[in-house]
Amino acid sequence: MSVEQAEKSIRASNARFAAAVVAGDAEIIGQTYCADATLMFNSLPTVVGREAIVSFFLNLKRAGLTGIEFVTDTLRVLGDVGIEIGTFRVAASGEGPVTDDAGRYTIVHRREPDGAWRILVDVPQSMG
Fold it and tell me: What are residue 121's DSSP bridge partners?
């Protein structure tokens, strides 16, 4: 797979993930992360494993998340590893504990044996 194909695949995965979080689609959220993935969001406890990460995002949805958007600033692909740096914006209904927010993120993607690019390490940082 060329670097251009890898970048295209990762960007498409980001778009599917954002739509899945808003829709509360556990299957697609789960397909975005490696089985041994880690999510480290600001001062919250570290979330380890695909199922725990899916639960984290479904809980955000239930808590009032209505939209999420990612803007990739840089994406570097080195073999089976992709490193992405960007910004995010979260919209919320105002009817739960989730509030509108924005921040930065660093993500390490890994190409899995099935050829799919999945998130191995996800480090979003709220600027709010």
Answer: 38, 108
Query: Counting every residue, how long is the chain?
Result: 128
Instruction: State both tokens at 40.
Output: 């480290």
Give dist(CA 52, CA 11) in Å, integer.
Answer: 23
User: CATH number of the domain that 65 lies in?
Assistant: 3.10.450.50
Structural domain harbouring 105: 3-126
Quick count: other Cβ atoms within 10 Å of Cβ 68? 20
pLDDT tens, position by position, for the chain (128 residues)? 687 888 888 889 999 999 999 999 999 999 999 999 999 998 899 999 999 999 999 999 999 999 999 999 999 999 999 999 999 999 988 787 888 899 999 999 999 999 999 999 999 999 87
Residue 90 CA to residue 67 CA, distance in Å, equals: 6
What values do phi and psi take at 76, rounded to 5? -115, 130
Domain total of the chain? 1
